[in-house]
Amino acid sequence: MKLLTVNFLTCAVKGCKGSAASFPLHFEDAELEQREIGYNPTFLSNILPRLDWDAITTTALELGFTNLPATKPDGSFETADEHKVMRDLHTLLMETEVVQGKMVCRNCGHAYQIKEGIANFLLPNHLV
Amino acid sequence: MSRPEETLPPDLFYNDRESRKYTTSSRIQNVQSDMTYRALELLQLNGPSLILDIGCGSGLSGEILSSVSPVDGGPHLWVGMDISASMLDIALQKNVEGDLLLGDIGQGIPFRAGSFDAAVSISAIQWLCNAESSEANPQGRLSRFFNGLYASLRRGGRAVCQFYPKNDAQRSLISSAATKAGFGAGILEDDPGTKKSKLYLVLTAGGGQDQGDITGVVKGMSDVEIQDGRRNFRTAGKKGDRRSNKSDITRKKEQMERRGKVTKASSKYTGRSRRRIVF
C-alpha cells in the first residue's frame, strides 16, 4: 500500500467518525518495499492541495524518513530545487509501499492488518 | 440467467475457483473493459486523477485506468476496494499498479473527506441489495455506502457505477439511496431493451457545473437519448394561488376523517380569513 493512500485512509469504525484522533492511522511493525512507478508531475500537482501535510510528516517519521520539508511545497516547479523536492515526494508517496504490518487508530485502538500490501478493513458487525 | 447475488454472499461466492473463472474468461474481460471505457468517458476527467474503484475484483478495470495515455489525460492512479480475498489475490498475482483494500462497501468507505477525484464501480453495487446477515439490511448498507462515497469524493467529483438491478424495485432502491446521500443522480441505459442492456448510475457530488443533473453530462454524446422525467417546477408553480381555501380545507378534513382521525367541526367560519384587528 502506497503512503499516498495512507494519507487518505481513516478509521472505519462508526464511533470514530468526526474524531480528530482517527486520522492518520499509525503504523506498527511496518515492512517497506520500493516499487518504481513513472514520475507524473501533473498528477502530483493535482493531488498536492488535498494532501494533509501534518499527517504525511507523522507517517514519514514513524517509518523513519526524516528528510521531509517542514511545510507543504507549493508545487510551482520553477526552480531546480523545487523539482527535486517533488521528485523526493514522488518517491515517498508513490513508490514506497507498506507490505506487512498494521495500522492502528489512536481513537478506538482498532488495528488494521496489512498483508502483502493489502489492508484488511473488514469490520465485525458491532463496530459498523 | 442465474444471478450470483442470490446464491451466496460476495466474499464466499468469489472463491479461488470462481475468481479465476471470472478473470480468465475472455468474454467477461471484453464486457468489463467496454464498460470501464464507457464509465471513463462518462467521468470526463481532464487530467491524471486519483480514482476509487469500488468492487475492483481482480483489477480488470484498474488496469485500464492505469493504462490511459497522457494524451487522453492519464495515467490515473486508483485505489480498489473489494470484499473477496480471492479476487484480490489474483490482482496481486497480476501485479496491478493501484492499491488494494479488503473491505465491505456496505460498511462505509474508510477515506477522509474529499480524497478522490472520481469513483468507478463495474458490476458491484447490486450486491448491496442483499442482506447477508440478520444484523444488516439493504437500506442501511446502501445508505452507508453512498454517504461514505459522497464524503470521500471532492466537490464536483463524479462517480459512475455500472450495475445489474434484478428488477425495477432494486433499481429505484439504489438510485433513491444515492439521491438521499446528496448526490445528483441519473441513470443512463445503453442498448435498452436488448440482452446486453447496461445501466450506469451517474452521480455528481455537489458543486459541479452541472449540479444534480446528468443530462448535461451526456449531451452531445452519440447514441444517447435523453428521457427527462422531471417536472418543470418553474411552470408547475404558476398554476394558481397556493393559499388554502375553504374547499381545500374541507377536502383535507374529509380525508382525515376517512382515516379515522378526529377533526374540528366545520362551521361558517371555516377557511375564512381572520378579521384584521387594528389597535
Protein architecture, described:
Helix content of chain A is 30%, strand content 20%. With 128 residues, chain A is α+β, with helices and mostly antiparallel strands. Chain A has one domain (3-127): N-terminal domain of TfIIb. The mean pLDDT of chain A is 88. Chain B is of the alpha/beta class and 279 residues long. Helices cover 34% and strands 17% of the residues of chain B. Chain B has ten helices and seven strands. Chain B has helices at 10-13, 16-24, 26-43, 60-66, 85-93, 138-152, 168-180, 215-218, 233-236, 246-258, and strands at residues 50-54, 77-82, 99-102, 116-122, 153-163, 184-190, 198-204. A seven-stranded mixed β-sheet of chain B has the order 3-2-1-4-5-7-6, sandwiched between helices. The longest helix of chain B is centred in the first third of the chain and has 18 residues, at 26-43. The radius of gyration of chain B is 24 Å and the shape is elongated. Chains A and B meet through helix 2 and strand 4 of A and strand 2 and strand 3 of B. Strand 4 (118-120) of chain A pairs parallel with strand 3 of chain B.
